[in-house]
Amino acid sequence: MKKKLFAYGSMKKGFMNEWRLKAQTFIGNATTVEKYTMHPSESFRFPYAIEKAQEYLLHGELYEINNELWDTIDLFEGTPKHYYRKEIEVTCKGVKHKAYIYFRSESNPHPCAHDIHTHTWTKEFEKAGALLEEFNDQLILAKLESTPEEKMDTIEDDLKHLDNLLKNALGETK
């Protein structure tokens, strides 16, 4: 019997790692039965579901996974150092299902943005991560070169854009 996966981050449809689940059976949008929380990684490139912090019902997608793919997903998720896999209950189309979720391991060496809590991983987080990566690259270049005035204006504009993306990701409006 195939097992189910509750995907809540970068493997959801439309996100950067969706290709990993393309050949799997999409059942539908799903919500956890129990409350957890989610924080973005410090780089905003991917989320961490936190089992012990019980704040929200998490929103994601439910997939039926071929048995031979689980080792590959475990490797991608970095189990057991970065994430651990646990079976939980989710609801999808009004029906309860048992599905596996990947929670952040306490041994994970990568920090998360603890001051940002969410129940849904959105494209704005992914965009913010890409912009933050670009911003860091610009800062490195600015340190290597004599920084012209317009370069600083670009960095300031990027910071404002990053701030707006994060506020949109959290459902805030400016």
Structure, explained:
This protein is an alpha+beta fold and 174 residues long. It has two domains: 3-104, Gamma-glutamyl cyclotransferase-like (Hypothetical upf0131 protein ytfp); 123-169. The protein has three helices and six strands. It has helices at residues 70-77, 123-144, 149-169; strands at residues 3-7, 25-40, 47-50, 56-65, 83-92, 95-104. Strands 1, 2, 3, 4, 5 and 6 form a six-stranded antiparallel β-sheet that branches. The protein starts with a strand and ends in a 5-residue tail after the last helix. The model has no long low-confidence stretch (mean pLDDT 84).
Please supply descriptive tags for the structure shown above.
single chain; 174 residues; alpha+beta; Hypothetical upf0131 protein ytfp; 3 helices; 29% helix
Per-chain topology:
Layout: E1 3-7, E2 25-40, E3 47-50, E4 56-65, H1 70-77, E5 83-92, E6 95-104, H2 123-144, H3 149-169
Antiparallel strand pairs: 1-4, 2-3, 2-4, 2-5, 5-6
